[in-house]
Predict the 3D structure of the following.
Amino acid sequence: MAEADLFQPMDLSALNSFGLAVNAEHYFALDRPEQISTVHAALKRQKCLLLGGGSNFLFTRDPEEPVIAMRIKGITVCEDGEDVHLHVGAGENWHNFTQYCVDRGYGGIENLSLIPGQVGTAPVQNIGAYGVEVREVITYVDAFDTQQKEMRRLKKKECGFGYRDSIFKSSQKDRFWITAVGFQLSKSAPVHTAYGAIRDQLQAEGVREPGIADVARAVIHIRKSKLPDPSELGNAGSFFKNPVLSTERSQALLNKYPNAPHYPASDGFKWAAGWMIEQAGWKGHRRDTHGVHDRQALVLVNYGGATGKEIFDLSSDIQKDVEKKFGVTLEREVNVYL
Ligand code: EPU
C-alpha cells in the first residue's frame, strides 16, 4: 500500500445521516486492523477525522483533515453456559448487530434496536434508549492508541462511561481509534420493560410474558412511530442531551411546571429536553430546508438542501429560547464540525 495512494477524494453526502453535501479531499476506508499503522504513519502527525456511521455528525463545511472511515467487520461469539461473550468489529452496523443477537436469543441490547450508527461508536457516546445504556453490557473496548502508537484493550471501567458520555468524547477525545468492542450478553437476561412506552406497546399487542424478540419488536415500533428514518429524512437522532439539574433547581422549576417530565439521575434529575423545546414553541417549526421534527422536538431534520450551518444556527436559536424560558442551557449531543 503506497502512502501516496492511500487517501482519495470522497463525496460524504451518503456517509452522514443528515445527508449534508460535503466532500473530503482525503478519504480512506479502513477495513483491516493491519492497515492501521500504515494509515497512521501516512498522516504524518496531522489530525484526522474518524468517521463511523456518520449518524452523530453535523458538518458545517468540508472537513479539511483526512477522513478515515472505520469499516472493520466481524463478529466472534463464545458461549459460556448462559453467558455469551462477543467480540465485534467497530465497522459492524449497530442495528444489524442487535438483530443478530435477538435472532440467537442473546439478551441485553434488544432495547437498543434501530439506533443508527456502528458498533464502534456505540461506546463513544454510551448510546442509550428505553431504560438501557450500552455500558451495561460492554466488557472492553479495543483501540489503536495514537499517542502510544499501539493497540490497547480498555476495560469497561477505564472508559469513563456516563450519560451520553465516555473518555472517547471528553478527556481522551481523538486519541483512540476504536477497532472492536467486547460485550457480555446472556441467554437468560431479564428483559427491561419498565419504560412506559414499551409497557404500553406490549400491552397493546397482548404480550404478557415478553421475551427479547418481543421487546425488540416493541422498540422498533416505538422508534418508527416517533423518530424519522435517516434514509428518508436527514437527521442525527437527539440533537441535544437531556439536561441534569440539581434537586434544588428541579424543585424550583417544578413549582412553575408541575407536570414537566423528569427522572431521577445520579446527581439530581434528568429533564426531558424535548419537552422544554416543545414548550418553547419549536416543535414542528420549519425553515424551508430544515426544521424541528414534529413528533420529537429533540430531533432536527434536513428536509433536503439544508447546509450544516443553517441547522447549527437553528440549534443556537433553540438553545437561546430554552435558556430564556427555563434558565437551562441545553448541551448539543451531536458532534459539530465547525
Ligand atoms: N417529550 C415532549 N415533547 C417532545 C419530546 C418528548 O413533551 O417533543 C416528552 C415525552 O412526552 C416524554 C419525555 O419528554 O414524557 C421523554 O420523551 P422520550 O421518551 O421520547 O425520550 P427523550 O428523553 O426525549 C431519550 C433519548 C433518545 C431515546 C429515548 C428513549 C436523549 C438525549 N435522548 O429521549 O435517544 O430514544 O430517550 O429512551 O437521551 C438519540 O440519542 O438519538 C435518541 C433518540
